[in-house]
Amino acid sequence: MINGKKIIVVMPAYNAEKTLKQTYREIPFEIVDDVILTDDFSLDGTTEVAKELNIREIQTHESNKGYGGNQKTCYNRALELGADIVIMLHPDYQYTPKLIYSIAYMIASGLYPAVLASRILGKGALKGNMPMIKYVANRILTLIQNLLMHQKMSEYHSGYRAFSADVLRKINYNSNSDDFVFDNEMIAQIFYSGFEIGEISCPTKYFEEASSINFRRSVVYGLGVLRVSVVYFLCKLKIMNSALFQHVQ
Question: Which CATH class is domain 7-245?
Answer without folding.
Answer: alpha beta
